[in-house]
Amino acid sequence: MASLGHVLPQTLHFADPLPLRSGAQLRDYTLVYETYGRLNADKSNAVLVCHALNASHHVAGTYEGQDKSEGWWDNLIGPGKPLDTDRFFVIGINNPGSCFGSTGPMHQNAETGRVYGADFPVVTVQDWVDAQARVLDHLGIAQLAGVLGGSLGGMQALDWSLRYPERMRHCIAIATAPSLSAQNIAFNEVARRAIITDPDFHGGHFYQHGVVPKRGLRVARMIGHITYLSDDVMEEKFGRQMRAAELGYTTQDIEFQIESYLRYQGDKFSEYFDANTYLLITRALDYFDPASEHGGDLSRTFASARCKYLLASFTTDWRFSPARSREIVKALLDNKRDVSYAEIAAPHGHDAFLLDDPRYHGVLKAYFARMAGEFQ
């Protein structure tokens, strides 16, 4: 399988306000995106890839002059890979509110001349989908071959099938859920409190103080990372292994290898991720619940769906468990929709959707090959 090689991000500016679910509007905003492969003559081979919490528009390929710059789903997307860019035109869009180029809390509010900070408006999955639709309008793509996403990206893929049922032929939702459980919301809230209570947070206006709430970001990432891994993987990689043969002299030392790993992940995250973005995105996760508009009835929610579906889950993913994917499958079957479902025995927990599991990639490769047959 060949590499995509070097890729370049592109930027679109929108002067028309984007209406948000909160009742606010996002004015004079910019969205960053990347594309891979070629759009065919009738523009029927486009696949939109929706990103999860700490990812971006940089889905595949590398940046020239930057080491370790591979896109976050590079193992899945490219020539000869499951989502084959010799067949498909793939689009990755950075959502508003992010910290990777699209207009977000660290940017200037054109109306006030000040950095948004904590005043950036609340955004939802539905708002992101509407913003993505505007990018597709600019590209002249009336209907997508498919929308693909994992985790929070899978929620966006599902929402696409509800908000724009005529604009897509396939929805591929991986390791996702129709809404967060109370336990998931609880994890998100603990992570947010770690950030908000950091003395360097300054109510979300830390930019003007020249500081970053790194302590809060570190703890937030450590909490999140625990939920992305399975107990089996943690046991296999770290177990109860200690860094030294003897006990430490203080309870504040890093003694176990798992502690060292979590602190490393937290330190790395605090260097590149924005605290206000973390709050915005985890809230968008919490808010997503399309069935709430239909009395909590998921079958009624999907009554308007028109596309074909592939859902995949992983047996050790306890954050977005297979049971949640099966809820979606049942709702689709209740509406006699065309749905395929794969429940993959993988030891990696929630992170499995990003990894090279051959069974998982085999399922996707077969599904995308079938999709390609529709326009070739």
From TrEMBL:
Residues 45-354 form the AB hydrolase-1 domain. Belongs to the AB hydrolase superfamily. MetX family. It catalyses: L-homoserine + succinyl-CoA = O-succinyl-L-homoserine + CoA. Pathway: Amino-acid biosynthesis; L-methionine biosynthesis via de novo pathway; O-succinyl-L-homoserine from L-homoserine: step 1/1. Pfam families: Abhydrolase_1. NCBIfam families: homoserO_Ac_trn, PRK00175.1. The keyword Amino-acid biosynthesis applies. The gene is metXS. The keyword Transferase applies. InterPro entries: AB_hydrolase_1, AB_hydrolase_fold, HAT_MetX-like. Keywords: Acyltransferase, Amino-acid biosynthesis, Cytoplasm, Methionine biosynthesis, Transferase. Transfers a succinyl group from succinyl-CoA to L-homoserine, forming succinyl-L-homoserine. This is Homoserine O-succinyltransferase. Gene3D superfamilies: 1.10.1740.110, alpha/beta hydrolase.
